[in-house]
Amino acid sequence: MKQVFAKPKALNDEIMHYCPGCGHGVAHRLVAEALDHYDITGRTVGVAPVGCSVLMYDYFNCDIIEAPHGRAPAVATGMKRSRSDLIVFAYQGDGDLASIGLAEIVHAANRGENITVIFINNTVYGMTGGQMAPTTLLGQKTTTSPYGRNFNTDGYPIRMAEMLAPLEGTTYVARMSLDKPVNILKARKSVFKAFEMQINNVGFSFVELLTICPTNWGMDSMESIKRIQDEMIPYFPLGVFKEKETEDYI
Ligand SMILES: Cc1ncc(C[n+]2csc(CCOP(=O)(O)OP(=O)(O)O)c2C)c(N)n1
Ligand code: SF4
After folding, report:
1. Which residue puts its alpha carbon closest to atom 8 of ligand 2?
2. What is the reported pLDDT for 181?
3. What is the CATH number of domain 2-249?
4. For residue 192, what are the CA distances in angstroms to 80, 112, 187, 188?
5. Of 86, 97, 106, 231, whose CB neighbour count within 10 A is largest?
């Protein structure tokens, strides 16, 4: 129990800038716990997105490099190809990964780059004031869909995990939720697995985490968590969509 709840060594003592209740802090912690668990902080490089987690380099004790909006998988690719001894992860929001960076994530996954991508799905552009994201749910009101997302004009929310899992290059693809402790522990296991895949050199691993953005959802934290359970999970089902065995790659 102590191991689970003590602050991970891979996080420093900086006070995070995130809004109260924001899911980014929990997601950072899970990544940091994986770095501690595999004792890889000293040889890990994270790639920060553009979005609310743009300042994540302030919180981790590993190296973090900033990528232009959406280009984290391309930057991670270059990093990993030039220094294959490093563990490289990209950390991206849904605007960053599924909108402006859609080409980068699909091609990095399809190429089977030996990197890990942590995808934060909060159904909205957080940093810029709550615009519609590719993952915004039908009917969800945002600053750019004030009457609710309408499939006639805005299309359907993208399920990224389901999109990437069938690509030959992906080895581990999962969607987890940060809504309650039992799911956070499952998410933790999944994030660990994704790093383990990279450590074993078996290719591209991807974990989508359903999280809350109370500020832009206009809800308090408890209402936001209920929204994950009542609205997000039914559309974005949880689970491991793909897990290849190491032997498949040799
Ligand atoms: C090329 C470019 N286009 C647009 C922006 C503006 N911008 C900054 S963050 C962001 C969206 C971030 O949303 P998301 O990826 O969902 O992350 P969150 O803030 O919710 O964590 C946008 C559109 C930018 N910085 N650069
Ligand atoms: S705006 Fe949303 S995603 Fe950004 S820090 Fe606040 S709660 Fe988190």
Report:
1. 22
2. 97
3. 3.40.50.970
4. 19, 19, 9, 6
5. 97
